């Protein structure tokens, strides 16, 4: 059964937060299901989110909702088990809009995620649509099952 894998025990890290204002733009807003809040990175050439799960998972779907104008033209999903180095799972190419983008092959704004068993995930956002390299994400969901 596929369900959301991010839980209270999931440890998350991000590359940066706009003006270091974690209260207003921090990583917790990626997962709070609130339409009014978001993670807003600071400027830079590459932004990322790392998730460390309390147990091994089998990821099957990734959902991302950017703010249009502050998205990424290219992304990379990587995973690892234990303390191993991250290995690429899939490259993806999000649309620059406000829609929830789902890893479901064949639909516009979607991409396929090959099944992978991991303890850690890294989502890297490259080539930001914002001139300064900022990325704004309202929702980041990882779906799959516990192994």
TrEMBL record:
Q: Which GO terms describe its cellular component?
A: nucleus
- UniProt entry keywords in alphabetical sequence: Nucleus, Receptor
For the keyword Nucleus, the answer is yes
| InterPro entries recorded | Galactose-bd-like_sf
Question: What is the protein's major site of localization?
Answer: nucleus
Where located?
Nucleus
What is this protein's function?
Answer: May act as a repressor of NR2C2-mediated transactivation by suppressing the binding between NR2C2/TR4 and the TR4-response element in target genes.
Instruction: Family membership, please give it.
Output: Belongs to the NR2C2AP family.
Subunit info?
Interacts with NR2C2/TR4.
Q: What is this protein called?
A: Nuclear receptor 2C2-associated protein
Provide the taxonomic classification: Eukaryota, Metazoa, Chordata, Craniata, Vertebrata
């Amino acid at each position: 059964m596929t369900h959301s894998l991010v839980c209270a025990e999931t440890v998350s890290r991000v590359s940066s937060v706009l003006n270091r204002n974690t209260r207003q733009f921090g990583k917790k807003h990626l997962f709070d299901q609130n339409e009014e809040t978001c993670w807003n990175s600071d400027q830079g050439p590459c932004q990322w989110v790392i998730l460390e799960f309390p147990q091994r998972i089998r990821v099957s779907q990734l959902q991302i909702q950017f703010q249009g104008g502050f998205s990424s033209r290219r992304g990379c999903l990587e995973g690892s088990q234990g303390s191993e180095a991250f290995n690429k799972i899939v490259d993806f190419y999000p649309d620059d809009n406000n829609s929830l983008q789902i890893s479901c092959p064949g639909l516009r704004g979607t991409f396929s995620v090959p099944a992978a068993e991991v303890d850690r995930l890294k989502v890297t956002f490259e080539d930001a649509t914002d001139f300064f390299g900022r990325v704004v994400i309202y929702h980041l969901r990882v779906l799959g099952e516990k192994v």
